[in-house]
Write a structure and sequence with these properties.
heterodimer; A: alpha/beta; 9-stranded mixed beta sheet; two-stranded antiparallel sheet; 13 helices; 17 strands; 14% strand; B: 3-stranded antiparallel beta sheet; 19 helices
Chain lengths: 495, 495
């Protein structure tokens, strides 16, 4: 893992490209003759595109070996940005309804700090949920009535009721969940996976980001899917909902694919000459780069084009499924990307920040996300992909059991709450139909089996075949991990 | 309650009165400049902050705003419920009686007279008001830039127990690490002192680190290959004496960075060819021993600036506010690009938003600027090829250069192709290379002759219209050829 510089003895000249976890590709061991034979004049009439097609079909060249046998191959993270209120969705707390309007007991809050937004409130009245809870499936999972579709797939889900985080505001909170640190500058989880596992499909980016369009809410910033100190090729590629899903994917207007192909063929010839002249392997990389770019120009529009999906699929994902850029369409796109081997698909659905007007606000959020998220789980299962795909649902923190602002009959809100929140995970070897961890009867503190963000990361990496203590990168004098110096595997979550 | 303000923009000009007695106040901040109307509306909140429940269990009544500074007597009179026109002599006498000091009455009356009746004070106040207004208007019109400045009085800083911001422990003092050279005894313990310590002739580190970065800028790698870490975890220098000599030279010549850069680029080591025999390459694949010249892909900024420069589009203007090239339209938070010269300035001037950096520059490994970075990663991804092939700026530059190359030239001679090659690579093309370019041009010309409408659309791209007497299909074909050259190895990789 830490062998970043590898030198081969000269006697062992090998044609094999060396790939290490550091993604260091050794250029040692190549003679000028070998290079010429392989890529230069020795090729004769064989076009570069054919050569590269072969390399691409040999996918082991880019996929790297995990540390141990992996349960899951890829991830779809349905990030619910803003902080969904756990006690209005999954964490059923009847006591809050009984004590609705009464003060949060000081003994429950203890010495804990509140946010500056509600910390100055003269009163912290408990707020019961306005929604009806019931138990669903054989597992008897508690789900509120604003998530009817999720309730139906409850037996596929592994609920973690005892998540907790260090961050109390959105920026640090989302950054922590995505990078393992509340401070900017660390690689995102998807970037770590691309770095550690490589890609299963050369023709698509390994880490794709989809943001629901036209949602206000807390700002999302590009560093959330950034590569931090890892090389920038590991950063997430955000697909846009418009014409060009990827920056400058389309040829300039007036240039068609035929013109581009001819131009690239001649450019390849120039590069072959250059390669023969200099023997620099960088040129080989460059040739491959242009061929991959050319292939992406067809593979990306193909994956974003839903016209080959049957009608029942759209019905399953709900009325928004044909509306490009909606959460439903992004869930469907995530499935299509996963099917084609994309390692990490990161969705963001903003708007869960119900400081006020919670009842209406959270209903809207659920209407937009409930059916597509449940459909994604069912769809993956039907295609036999759920076992090897981790579907993660959750936000950056939870919300308070007390009301922020004035508690009235018609309206109330909840402030940020880092001490407990709920997430669910489906597939990838997480135990289906289970609920792990408990909060106290006020839904304020973790009562048993707390799971920190680092613990979650450690467990997710484990399912993907990576030891969170071994997946490292040296930067500014020290080795970094997604879990930094923290994180414990939670064996009870996995089968 | 009364709040009195004299309009001076200073904290001393603000008084708080409770039950007609001046309250004791503490100045927390005193740095008001410009009008207070900017930055999020000019609403006045009473007794609460944004999203706070604020003042509770009471009501606010009889709120009045005066457009003048009230005297102490007026406040007392208002408190006693007297008419605004009441004679204040008795109020003054009463107040003097309360403190059993008759001169108080006179001074209160004098203050009242001064604020309300004295014509010369009124005249001067009116003048002062005008001058302040003009001053504020002048300030409001200035563009504000944040700078770091020492506080008048240093804010105490504490060791935070277990890192919690509300658990201060022992107060700490500014000091440099003990294992590094001693802090000069006469230097102030602030940023000025830090700068003096850093650049002191007794401190060898700063100059060594600096010249190493300059070396890295020219050679792609520093003499110390861990430019961020000169400590025990970093790599030792490959040429320790050279590093020391360069460092001493920089210090002895007044820290003249330009001089050091000139020294490096005019050295025999730098001016060597990067093309060497495979045997030499194999012996030192990483070029640690500098037996060949540097070779690496140019930076994002250099690639863009180079396209601007060779095409003649570059607006070589120095300084001024940031500009918005085409790519900001494609950023995560899109903004409208400039028209005209702002599109063609050096990349140094590109508008930068950290949460949504310039996307083409990001693709080409420009620093994200969210954390300090002393070394950029150089990666190769197909997304870079898409930028170089399809970025409207690259196309526009290609067309502009094509038009200038073909102006009054014989299209069928190879002269303009040779000129193109020299312009983009600084060397002559050999016959094979010229043949390839010729074939590329002929193929593209044939292609566009069959689709002249496509040629016309293609030539419309970008903000600058190209004046040319060349046939549009010919110009379109030449544009493709130039664009291919801008993608050619030697145009983007230093050799």
């Amino acid at each position: 893992m830490r062998d970043q510089t590898v030198t081969q003895p000269e006697s062992e000249i090998s044609m094999e490209r060396k790939h290490y976890c550091s993604n260091f590709v050794s250029t040692a061991g190549w003679s000028r003759r070998q290079i010429l034979q392989s890529f230069g004049m020795g090729l004769g009439g064989l076009a570069a595109s054919q050569l590269l097609a072969q390399e691409s079909s040999n996918q082991s060249a880019s996929a790297k070996q995990p540390h141990f046998a992996a349960k899951a191959k890829r991830v779809i993270f349905l990030f619910q940005s803003g902080g969904p209120a756990q006690m209005d969705l999954f964490d059923y707390k009847p006591l809050l309804n009984e004590r609705h309007g009464q003060e949060l007991p000081a003994s429950v809050r203890g010495m804990q700090r509140l946010t500056a937004m509600s910390g100055n409130q003269a009163s912290l009245p408990l707020a019961g949920t306005p929604f009806k809870f019931a138990q669903y499936g054989e597992s008897g999972a508690w789900v509120s009535d604003i998530l009817p579709h999720t309730a139906k797939v409850a037996d596929e889900l592994c609920f973690i009721k005892s998540m907790h985080t260090d961050a109390i505001n959105h920026g640090p909170g989302v950054t922590f969940m995505q990078t393992g640190s509340p401070f900017p500058g660390r690689p995102s989880m998807g970037a770590w996976l691309d770095y550690g596992l490589g890609t299963d499909n050369q023709d698509l980016p390994a880490f794709v980001v989809l943001v629901t369009k036209n949602k206000g809410g807390q700002p999302l910033v590009s560093r959330l899917w950034g590569s931090g100190f890892l090389p920038s090729k590991y950063q997430g590629v955000r697909f846009r909902s418009g014409e060009d899903p990827v920056l400058y994917l389309s040829n300039p207007t007036g240039v068609d694919s035929q013109s581009r192909r001819m131009m690239l063929d001649r450019l390849n010839e120039l590069h072959q000459l250059q390669l023969a002249k200099t023997g620099d392997r960088e040129i080989e990389t460059k040739i491959a780069q242009y061929e991959l770019a050319f292939r992406m120009q067809s593979s990306i529009p193909e994956v974003a084009d839903f016209s080959d999906e049957p009608e029942y699929v759209f019905e399953e994902y709900g009325p928004d499924a044909k509306n490009a850029g909606s959460f439903a369409a992004n869930c469907l796109l995530a499935r299509r990307l996963s099917e084609r081997g994309v390692r990490f698909v990161q969705l963001y659905h903003p708007g869960w920040d119900q400081h006020g007007g919670l009842e209406g606000g959270i209903r809207t959020q659920c209407n937009e996300t409930d059916q597509p998220a449940a459909a994604l789980v069912n769809d993956l299962k039907r295609r036999g992909l759920l076992d090897e795909t981790l579907v993660i649902w959750g936000g950056e923190f939870g919300r308070t059991n007390y009301c922020q602002g004035k508690l009235t009959k018609s309206s109330f809100g909840r402030d940020h709450h880092p001490r407990c929140f709920t997430m669910w995970i489906a597939g990838g070897g997480f135990k289906p139909g289970t609920s792990y961890g408990q909060t106290d009867e006020f839904g304020y503190n973790v009562a048993a089996n707390g799971v920190s963000v680092h613990d979650l990361h450690a467990t997710l990496l484990h399912q993907l075949g990576l030891d969170h203590e071994q997946l490292t990168f040296k930067y500014q004098g020290r080795w970094f991990r997604l879990t930094d110096v923290h994180g414990n595997l939670i064996p009870e979550l996995i089968g | 309650m009364a709040v009195v303000y004299d309009g001076s923009s200073s904290a001393n000009g603000l008084q708080l009165w409770v039950n007609s007695k001046q309250a004791e106040t503490r100045i927390v901040r005193d740095n008001l400049y410009k009008n207070i109307t900017g930055g999020g509306g000019d609403t006045i909140h009473i007794g609460e902050r944004f999203r706070d429940r604020g003042f509770s269990q009471g009501q606010i009544d009889e709120f009045s705003v005066y457009d003048k500074q009230l005297s102490a007597l007026e406040i007392a009179a208002l408190h006693q419920g007297l008419e605004e026109s009441a004679d204040l002599r008795s109020v003054a006498a009463n107040l003097a009686d309360q403190v059993a000091q008759s001169p108080v009455a006179d001074s209160l009356l004098l203050e009242h007279y001064r604020l309300n009746m004295a014509p010369e004070v009124a005249e001067q106040t009116a003048k002062l008001h005008e001058v302040r207004k003009a001053f504020c208007e002048f300030q409001d019109g200035l563009t504000e830039i944040m700078v770091m400045a020492e506080l008048n009085q240093r804010r105490p800083t504490y060791f935070l127990k277990r890192g919690a911001y509300d658990a201060p422990g022992e107060e700490v003092q500014p000091q440099t690490p003990a294992f590094l050279p001693e802090f000069p005894a006469d230097a102030p313990h602030n940023r000025l002192g830090l700068a003096q310590w850093l650049t002191s002739p007794d401190n060898p580190l700063f100059a060594r680190v600096t010249v190493n970065r300059l070396w890295q800028q020219c050679f792609g790698q520093g003499l110390v290959r861990t430019p961020e870490d000169f400590g025990s975890q970093g790599q030792p220098p490959s040429h320790p004496l050279l590093l020391d000599w360069l460092a001493a030279d920089l210090m002895e010549n007044g820290w003249d960075v330009k001089r050091t850069l000139r020294l490096i680029v005019s050295s025999a080591a730098y001016q060597q060819s990067a093309n060497v025999s495979a045997a030499s390459y194999q012996k030192d694949p990483e070029n640690r021993w500098l037996a060949r010249g540097p070779s690496y892909r140019l930076s994002a900024e250099m690639i863009r600036d180079n396209a601007l420069c060779v095409s003649g589009l570059l607006v070589d203007k120095i300084g001024g506010p940031p500009v918005r090239p085409y790519e900001v339209k494609e950023s995560f938070k899109p903004v409208d690009p400039d028209k005209g010269e702002g599109l063609y300035r050096r990349s140094l001037y590109t508008y930068w938003k950290r949460t949504a950096p310039a996307p083409a520059m990001m693709t080409l490994d420009a620093s994200k600027r969210d954390v300090c970075s002393v070394k950029r990663e150089r990666t190769a991804s197909p997304l870079q090829a898409l930028v170089l092939l399809n970025d409207p700026l690259q196309i526009e530059a290609s067309r502009t250069l094509a038009a200038s190359l073909l102006q009054d030239k014989d299209v069928d001679s190879n002269d303009w192709l040779q000129e193109l090659f020299v312009r983009t690579t600084s060397r002559q093309a050999d016959d094979t290379e010229l043949q390839i370019l010729r074939r590329m041009f002929d193929e593209q010309r044939q292609h566009f002759q069959d689709r002249s409408d496509q040629a016309n659309t293609f030539l419309q791209l970008g903000d600058t219209k190209t004046e040319s007497n060349v046939e549009s299909t010919t110009l379109a074909a030449a544009t493709v050829v130039v664009s291919a050259m801008l993608n050619f190895d030697e145009c983007v990789i230093k050799r």
